[in-house]
Structures are given as structure tokens and as C-alpha cells.
Amino acid sequence: MEIDDAHKLFNLWIDKTASPYFTDDEIDLFLNRAIVEFVNDHFDTKPVHRAEASIRDVEELRELIEIVDDVRTDSNGKIKDTEINESLTGAGATDREFSYILSASKASSKECGGEQRKSRFVRHNDWLAQKDNTYKKPTEEYPTHRLFNGYIQFNPATESNVEFVVLKKHLEVSKASTDSKIELSDKAANKIIFMALRQAGVSLREEDFYGMATNEINENE
Asked: Are residues 106 and 45 in the same domain?
């Protein structure tokens, strides 16, 4: 959804609820905060919710999901966050960063066929109990990874190609930028605008908002 359309829907409901006027910069702020909240809701752990637990997760975030397959661990099994971000950016592209790793696979050694093997995420609290466990320790066939400040540690700690599926951070939206937009689908954008209105203190019923947003989209098609 283009940023101008998002502002129009936001202001439409401001008018309908007789709420105070907000500047473009203020609306941008509420929209950007709502985008972060919307994405993070898909990774909420209270109640327990795993990303991609349903097709809804994939559909609502699919525009931000991307494969990164040209990174390699160093001789100590480490990959820096910046290396993943550089792969996302590409030559001449807008700077991008990843926010979540959805999956990781590490190439096994030639002795094990050289195929990509799914890497299992291990919590730091579990590492000591698992690293020497016969059934849970990392191997070429069943590698593991842990997250540290600024890098990802793979085990076995060998140099190898890694393929990630990541969720990119949404670029900040700004009405002052001519090419700015909410990168997600119109359906997801409608939810984000509702969340932005809620953060702005605008009181409205959710079902009314979705009805109005749907009508607006149909009239514009």
C-alpha cells in the first residue's frame, strides 16, 4: 500500500471519530511503530506462538521473507550479522537488515555428501547439556547454531556455506519520500493502520474499521 493511501485511510477514521488532527510526521511515527508491533506479534511467545505456525503467518509476512544463500562461516563456524545484511542489500540496493532467522541450513563436508543440512537452533541454557550428549550434540549431519551479539555460531565449527531464510526489517515509511510504502499486502496494511490508530489513542471498534477499509479498497479498484 502506498504511503499516501495509508495516510488517507488514517485521516478518514480521524474524521469519523472526531479525533484530534495529526501531522504527517506524527502519522508516520504511529505507522512505523504499528509495523514493528504487527511483525513482532507473529513471534509472540505469550501465549506460545511459533512463526509460520499457520498459513496466516506466511501470507501476512511473505513480502518480507527472503532467501540468503551466499554467505559462508569462517574457520571458527561464525557468520556475522553484517554479512547477512550485505547479502540482503545487494549491489546498489537500499540498505536492508534482517530481523528474524526463520531457518538455517549448513553444507556438510564432502565425506557426508556436501548437502545442505538443516541447522537446529539451540538456546544457550541448553548448550552445555547438549554439546557432549551422544544424541543431541552437533554433527555434520545435524548441525546447530546459537545467536550472539553481532554473529551466529554454527557447530561443528567448520568453514562451510550456509543458506538462511530470513525476515527482513520493514523499511521505515515516510510521506516525505515519494517511493515510500507499506511493503506488506493491503490486508496486512489495513491491520497496521488500525494498530496505528490505537496507538494514537483513537477509539473505534475493530469490525467497523475493517468494514470501512474494505469499502475504501473496493472503491479504489
From this structure: no
